[in-house]
UniProtKB/TrEMBL annotation, chain A:
<keyword id="KW-1133">Transmembrane helix</keyword>
<comment type="similarity">
    <text>Belongs to the cytochrome ubiquinol oxidase subunit 2 family.</text>
</comment>
<feature type="transmembrane region" description="Helical">
    <location>
        <begin position="119"/>
        <end position="140"/>
    </location>
</feature>
<keyword id="KW-1003">Cell membrane</keyword>
<keyword id="KW-0249">Electron transport</keyword>
<dbReference type="Pfam" id="PF02322">
    <property type="entry name" value="Cyt_bd_oxida_II"/>
</dbReference>
<keyword id="KW-0472">Membrane</keyword>
<feature type="transmembrane region" description="Helical">
    <location>
        <begin position="225"/>
        <end position="242"/>
    </location>
</feature>
<feature type="transmembrane region" description="Helical">
    <location>
        <begin position="194"/>
        <end position="213"/>
    </location>
</feature>
TrEMBL record, chain B:
<dbReference type="InterPro" id="IPR002585">
    <property type="entry name" value="Cyt-d_ubiquinol_oxidase_su_1"/>
</dbReference>
<protein>
    <submittedName>
        <fullName>Cytochrome ubiquinol oxidase subunit I</fullName>
    </submittedName>
</protein>
<feature type="transmembrane region" description="Helical">
    <location>
        <begin position="127"/>
        <end position="150"/>
    </location>
</feature>
<feature type="transmembrane region" description="Helical">
    <location>
        <begin position="183"/>
        <end position="207"/>
    </location>
</feature>
<keyword id="KW-1003">Cell membrane</keyword>
<keyword id="KW-0249">Electron transport</keyword>
<keyword id="KW-0812">Transmembrane</keyword>
<keyword id="KW-0472">Membrane</keyword>
<keyword id="KW-0813">Transport</keyword>
Length: 340, 480
């Protein structure tokens, strides 16, 4: 296999990792006000992802860095072209990350309510915008012969891309609900499972329309097989949720997201960012790539270290595998505000 | 204002801001790891209380460092896409490796450390924070290798077919001679910063009247450990800084001349501690000078010649042509903004020296059960965490402004590095949004820091010491 193809696949794997992992913590964040009815329940919800959300987010940093290293032209065109949506995503990720860390640092209802809003909005915005961005990458955007994006922000808000945003939103909501069903106990668990089922049906409809549309634009045989497998995984997950098998249910949405994203990358290949412009230049795995020397070094680094990362990150999930229920939540961690 | 100006302001603002927090993270993670290790080994409750108290402050600081770090990684592509295209083959690799080797390590093991008190055996729990510290060091290494390449590009070849710089020797980039001095210089500065933070905070708590008398020896221990770390770090910064000056004279002579605002070549050259000059910085009105010091800083020899800006300008013109960044500098002028380089260089050194001297002073007055309560000592304790932080910022402003008009020295100018497709409106939206957001976050962060510093260390609670994989149904030891 060509090194450029290897790196295209590795970047696909990084994005798959990102969406499968941070996807559920986006979902958990958005569902915070929906599934919890008291402060203690809110803390149950937040603590299911407390130890892992930051590690999940690193997947996108590595995906960004790997794109920079392996396909500099792709990185340059994509990041400068999708400027405002990326700025929004950055702001969302900043307030969301701080919200998790700072929310419990003052014993003050207004303070906590504000950070709760930050968690919801900070999870919602990227959940939608990553879908919009990916749909645009697959569909193609106006790129001129100098490899520069020449559209505007409005160009990115086309119906297909917006449907992509709705699809990731609903998928992540479902994924998050089923994660909560797996990781909590008591009432939240039941609420999460029922809601996950409901959201899952909506997600299935959106995903089927979106993936069929994608298939019509740019799909091939492999992508169609992956899309069908994704749909089946999602339905299987929902069936498991209905039968109260939460582990299988979560595995179902996990696999569905992984297969769907894999299908999108297959549909994209060998382009990395096709152009919609007459006389424009599509970025491909060859014309956007780094030199084979750089790719060789990066391959060695990836081969040596990715398994180690997967091992310790997986181990974290094992350490924190236990369900959390209301009675596990300690009384507020803080001493009262000092009197002077 | 055009996009280049705006993009430069954004880079300056968000990078300096990010780096207010990073050195505290790097330095403090080591000290906290030391506290926890001492607790595991000695079972002395004071060390656990210190671990938890400084751990809390550390996390407040770490969170903001992490979230502002995301912007760093994205903005090369967003604002500097032509830079990214031109150097991505070389510059992207350290960034990607930093993510894979360092960011995963830091975030994963920090999660384990924060939430793992009732899930991990004590030794393993302490190992987690050591791994976080290792992650911060790896992160510094790779990002500084990337920066060092911008100061002194090596291991590459310009490929006229692709119109970009391409990597030919990865190890040359990893062991760039600028990197060999910048990495130790930065990391020792981080230890100075972390040590000064711990020493200052602990001293303030030690002498505060409302602190329980029984807790004062514990804070004294922290003062002394923090001060020793700061002193060792400070000594390291000075030595490595001296080496760095010589490497800089070798690879970026204009930066060295700009650091002294030395227009005319001198032999031997004096170092001025303080100068009042004309507004454009080219004529001096009043100056305090140390004879021959600049010669030593530049060449390790009190008699050596230091080449001045005027001569270097001619040399650079001959080497690089007439017009590198004509937009910002008069054509063919390779001079950075001299008042900025001159003063930031002095502020970096000056504040660093004051911080190290402050650490020495705190170490001295905290000896053998003393409880100095003079106002001056309290003010010194309050200033301690801020001094190295300011010195770090001035150091970076110096090293980056001193490289101008280049983004990659001798290879690419800053004005040609910006994204051609980004409009003034977009760039302004970005810098204004991020600056306002960061300002709000700073207020929140400082508020939380002060609150938790005032609270002091919590009483000792014997933490569980579970076997790995064991679970109880008790409430969690820590939860958000």
């Amino acid at each position: 296999m060509e090194l450029t193809t290897v790196w295209f696949s590795l970047i696909a794997v990084l994005w798959i990792g990102y969406f499968c992992l941070e996807g559920f913590d986006f979902g958990v964040g958005m569902l915070l006000p929906v599934l919890s009815r008291s402060e203690t329940e809110r803390r149950v919800v937040i603590n299911t992802i407390g130890p892992v959300w930051d590690g999940n987010e690193v997947w996108v940093l590595v995906a960004g860095g790997a794109t920079f290293a392996a396909f500099p032209e792709w990185y340059a065109t994509l990041f400068s072209g999708f400027y405002l949506p990326l700025l929004l995503i950055l702001v969302a990720l900043i307030v969301r990350g701080l919200a998790f860390e700072y929310r419990a640092k003052r014993d003050d209802d207004t303070w906590r309510a504000r950070w709760d809003k930050a968690i919801v909005i900070g999870s919602l915005v990227p959940a939608v915008l990553w879908g919009v961005a990916f749909a645009n990458i697959v569909r193609g955007v106006p790129i001129d012969a100098d490899k520069e994006y020449v559209g505007t922000t409005l160009t990115l808000l086309n119906p297909y891309a917006l449907l992509g945003g709705v699809t990731t939103l609903l998928l992540f909501l479902t994924h998050g609900a089923l994660f909560l069903a797996l990781k909590t106990d008591g009432e939240i668990r039941h609420r999460a499972r029922s809601l996950g089922l409901l959201l899952g049906l909506a997600a299935a409809v959106a995903a089927v329309v979106f993936l069929t549309w994608t298939q019509a634009i740019t799909g091939d045989l492999t992508s169609s097989a992956l899309f069908v497998a994704a749909a089946l995984a999602l339905l299987g997950g929902l069936f498991a949720a209905w039968r109260a098998r939460e582990g299988w249910a979560f595995l179902g949405t996990f696999a569905a997201i992984a297969l769907a994203v894999a299908g999108l990358f297959v549909a994209l290949f060998p382009d990395v960012m096709p152009t919609t412009l007459e006389g424009g230049l599509s970025l491909t795995t060859t014309n956007a790539a780094a030199t084979s020397y750089t790719l060789t070094i990066m391959t060695w680094v990836a081969v040596l270290f990715t398994p180690i990362v997967l091992m310790y990150q997986g181990w974290t999930y094992w350490v924190f595998r236990k369900r959390i229920a209301v009675h596990h939540i300690p009384t507020p961690q803080l001493a009262a505000e000092p009197t002077r | 204002m055009d996009v280049v100006d705006i993009a430069r302001w954004q880079f300056g603002i968000i990078t300096v801001y990010h780096f207010l927090f990073v050195p505290i993270t790097i330095g403090m993670s080591a000290i906290i790891a030391g506290f926890e290790t001492m607790w595991v080994r000695t079972n002395n409750p004071a060390y656990l209380r210190l671990t938890k108290f400084f751990g809390k402050l550390f996390l407040i600081n770490f969170a903001i460092g992490v979230v502002t770090g995301i912007v760093q990684e994205f903005q090369f592509g967003m604002n500097w896409s032509d830079y990214s295209r031109f150097v991505g083959d070389i510059f992207g690799a350290p960034l990607a490796i930093e993510g894979l080797l360092a960011f995963f390590l830091e975030s994963t093991f920090l999660g384990l450390w924060i939430f793992g008190w009732d899930k991990l055996p004590r030794g393993l729990h302490a190992a987690c924070i050591w791994l976080v510290h290792l992650g911060t060091l790896l992160s510094s290494y790779f990002i500084l290798a990337a920066n060092s390449w911008m100061q002194n590009p090596v291991g590459y070849e310009f490929n006229p077919d692709t119109g970009r710089a391409e990597l030919t020797d990865f190890w040359a980039v990893m062991f760039n001679k600028v990197q060999m001095v910048s990495f130790p210089h930065t990391v020792t500065a981080c230890y100075l910063t972390g040590g000064a933070f711990v020493a200052g905070v602990a001293f303030w708590l030690m002498v505060r009247r409302s602190t329980p008398d029984a807790d004062r020896p514990m804070y004294r221990t922290a003062v002394r450990i923090g001060a020793v770390v700061a002193l060792v770090g400070g000594l390291g910064v000075a030595v490595t800084g001296d080496f760095q000056g010589k490497v800089m004279t070798d690879v970026q002579p204009m930066k060295m001349a700009a650091a002294e605002a030395l227009y005319e070549t001198e032999q031997p050259a004096a170092f001025s501690i303080f100068t009042i000059g004309s507004l454009d910085g080219s004529e001096e009105v009043f100056s305090i000078k140390v004879p021959r010091l600049l010669s030593f800083l530049a060449e390790n020899d009190f008699d050596s010649k230091v080449v001045g800006i005027d001569e270097l300008r001619e040399e650079y013109r001959a080497t690089y042509g007439q017009d590198p960044g004509a937009k910002y500098y008069s054509p063919g002028d390779y001079t950075p903004v001299i008042p900025v380089t001159y003063w930031t260089f002095r502020l970096m050194i000056g504040l660093g020296v004051v911080a190290a001297a402050g650490a020495a002073a705190l170490l001295w007055v905290s000896r053998r059960g003393r409880l100095p309560r003079g106002k001056a000592w309290v003010w010194l304790a309050i200033a301690m965490p801020l001094l190295p932080v300011a010195a770090n910022s001035f150091g970076w402003i110096f090293t980056e402004m001193g490289r101008q008009p280049w983004v990659v020295f001798g290879l690419m100018t800053t004005s040609s590095a910006v994204s051609p497709g980004v409009s003034v409106g977009e760039a302004l939206t970005s810098v204004i949004t991020l600056t306002l957001l960061y300002a709000v976050l700073a207020v929140i962060e400082v508020g939380l820091m002060l609150k938790y510093v005032r609270q002091g260390a919590e009483p000792f609670v014997e933490p569980p010491n579970p076997k790995l994989g064991e679970h109880s149904d008790e409430p969690l030891t820590f939860a958000y």
